[in-house]
Every structure is written in structure tokens, then in C-alpha cells.
Amino acid sequence: MTFVGKILVFIITALSLVFLGVSTVVFTTASNWKEATKKQQEAVTKLQTATNDLKSQIASAEAESTKLQAKHKAELKVQEDQVANLQANIDKLTGERTEALKAFEVAQENAKSALLEANAEKQERDQLREQKAAVEKQANEYKLRQTELNDRIRELERSLETATKNANDLRDRVARFSTLLRQNGLSDDISTLKGLESPPVVQGEVSRVEADNRSMEITIGSDDGLVPGHELLLYRVKPQPEYLGRIKIISVDPDQSVGRVIGSTINGKKVKEGDIVSSTFRPRS
User: Fold this and answer.
1) Which of 34, 56, 58, 235 sits a CA distance of 20 to 30 A from 162?
2) pTM of the model as a whole
3) 3-class DSSP state for residue 270?
4) Which string of DSSP letters, residue by residue, matches 153-177?
5) Summary count for the chain: helices (H), strands (E)
């Protein structure tokens, strides 16, 4: 029996007792007790009918309560299933969140590693750029040096060509002189000839100086009486008279010669174009 049914039974019992008391009072005080009894019986009948109705209602209420309990249990089961499903989804989402956090941490570590590698590569690229710039600078310097060397080679080739031509001319001249000397009954051995130790009285100027500051071209040659082996004085007169040293003639042309400084110049001074070469010191004016 449900709680509602118990309350109804209690109410009916209380009403029956109250009615019984009233009936007793009425029965003791009324003059017509039969009529009163009849009324009481009718009242009891009514009460019984009411009680039966209440019992029917209680039974209906209990049946309804049973149905409601069954429905409630079914709904509770559905809710419990939903809660279980929600919990399973929550557990699944929690697992996915945990996996996502792990993946994020791994990605974060990978990003840090990639950033470090990128910084290292950047430093390496910077070093390579600096090295490339240094190499390019050096290459440009080499190109300039190569250009200078090529110019020097061309200049030396021209000098060699001139020297070869002069050598060929000298050989022809020596051959002719040797033939002429032999025809006149003289020896062609130059070591037996005199007068080569001292050059004739000549004076010229330096027209070009090689980079080594030792070899130079001068403006006097074989037409002036110079031959290879002659030694000349080297000096300048401007801005003040200054002795530089001595040169030795190593090759001659009719109007120019090539000389070389004997030893080195005084105090290593630079020879300049316009310096004087002479067999004697020029008197001061």
C-alpha cells in the first residue's frame, strides 16, 4: 500500500470513530432510538459506500502509481542510458583532449627544434654570404691583379719582341762587323778590342722605368756610341742635384737603350722618368 492509501485509511478510520461517537450520543439522547439506529445504519452504509469508493480510488491510485513507477523506472533507465552515453562521450572527449595535448606538446617541441634549426641555418647562410662576399672581393682583386698581370705580360711581350728584334739586328750587325774585321785582317774576338771599358761622352734621359725600379729605357743608343756593357752615371738635377747610382747598358738600339741599375739606387730611391744618364757628371750651372 502506498503512502496515499495509508493516509486515506487513517482518515476513514478517524471519521468512523467520530461518527460512532456521534451515533452513541445521539442514541443515548434521542427518544426514538430505533429511528436513530436506522439513521445510524444508513450513515454507516453511506460511510461503507464512501469507504469502498475510497478503497476503489486507492486501488486506482495504487495502479496509477504502479504505472507511474514503471514509467518513471523506464524514463530513469533512459536517462541512465543517456548519462552513460554522455559519460562515455565525456571519457572519449577527455581521451581525445589528452591525445590532442600530447600531440600539441610534440608539435611544440618540433616547432622549437625547427626554430633552432632555422636559426642555425640562418647563421650558416649568413656565414656563407660573408664567405661569398669575401670570395667575390678576393675574386675581384684577383681579376684586377690578372688584368694588371695581363697588361704587364703584354708589355713584356712588346719588350721581348723589341728585344728579340734588337737581338736579331745585333746578330746581323755583329756578323757584318765580324766579316768586315776578318776581311781587314783583324780578329773578331771582342775581348781583344780596347775602348769598351769607358763609354763615349754621352748624356740622355730616362724615358721609362720598370716596376722593379731597376730596369729602364734611356734616350741614347748605338748611334751615340753605346754598346752593351757600358756603365753610365744616374742622377737628377731637379728640384736639387741628387746622385742616384750607376746603370749598365744591357741592350741597345740606334736611338735608345735598355739599362739596369748596378746593385741598387742610393738609399733605395725611386728612379723617375726625366732622370739624367751620363758618362760624366754634368757641371753645375
Assistant:
1) 235
2) 0.34
3) coil
4) HHHHHHHHHHHHHHHHHHHHHHHHH
5) 2, 6
